[in-house]
């Protein structure tokens, strides 16, 4: 009886017939003809795309493991996203509580315009020294602890400001605003990280856009509601009552959201949503160096360009938001409510742009677009340019740049408005927006995360090819016994 044929390695043994050997050789040549993105050993033990081509059989063991990993999307991912967005909105609302009715608070606390501007700029200044420790906390303790601490600071700061509704309590209201600004450091850069941890590759940009939209919604509320709740009345006791009412509402919402975060918000799903997340979870913690990750990001030239352009764009928005009341009231005295509506219009346009850009990114993966969607675009583009580094780290550095430029632009534009008028101040910002637009066009679109997903799919196809060929060969061996010598 003929002996049972066997395969060892990639070659048939000597008992294979000539026809089977030729089929085996042809199949191997076909497999070697396929090309896939080549990846070299990178930071955190993960593979990095280098752009050359190799034989499919040389794919790394780690990629093959990732290609076999189970993935799953949980319905509760939307609950995590919307709860975080609500916390971010609550915090963003307090940023503009003072500046959109700056003329009223200047009279109430008897302070000058620079002091009232710092009630907004403290958000920008606090972010700069605290972002690195918060990023370390995010990498070492996870997203739940970071969001929990952020919502706690937001709640505490809101309650502190309730006691500051008196003309002689400006130091207390400034302290309360400072505590709320600390919360911003814990929530502002989370959207891209949360989207990557909870959402699939075809919806991650939309999820990031919704996370950013929460912050923009809070800004919109901060533009619209304070002028309605705090009318410009002459009686100081009545004015103090209106201010206290606004602070109570803010504190109540912040407290409710903090309780929800404590009992509802989760760290991450049990099963990862994407192969990229499965690969990230397989990295031993001892292989990760936080400072080395920061240094790698700062040596990434496309990312550095993105840091600058993002800072220029968002910094201009921060300046406009802080100084909008002054620009409007200078020409239209007593129109605080309409100034808030103008700010609301600006933000709603940005919110629409964010959603459009998020959906656009998930469908096309093109990351250069228009200004209104720059916030989610910047976060997602940074993740693509810096993969496999932490999404929170890249987003945090982007926001740090925006805070620096925001402080510079707010102070400079405020002085230009005081000396030369509103038109000169707006021209000043337009010049830097043009510079940012030109620099954005120079960024090389090295979409590493997308290439990682393509590599995983290529590995899966290779495995299917190998399995299908192996089954075909086995059937052929059983049906056509080899010739005997």
Unreliable stretches covering 5 or more consecutive residues: 1-67
- The count of β-strands is 4
Structural class: mainly alpha
Q: What is the CA-atom radius of gyration, in angstroms? A: 28 Å
Strand order of the largest sheet: 1-2
Q: Provide a count of the helices.
A: 18
**Overall pLDDT score:** 78
Q: Could you give a short account of the major beta sheet?
A: 2 strands, antiparallel
Give the overall silhouette.
globular
Keywords for this structure?
two-stranded antiparallel sheet; 4 strands; disordered N terminus; single chain; about 475 residues; mainly alpha
Structure notes:
It is built from 18 helices and four strands. Helices cover 73% and strands 4% of the residues. The strands form two sheets. It has a two-stranded antiparallel sheet with strand order 1-2. The chain has a two-stranded antiparallel ribbon with strand order 3-4. The N terminus is likely disordered. The relative contact order is 0.15. With 485 residues, it is mainly α. A hairpin with a 5-residue loop joins strand 3 and strand 4. Helix 9 packs antiparallel against helix 15.
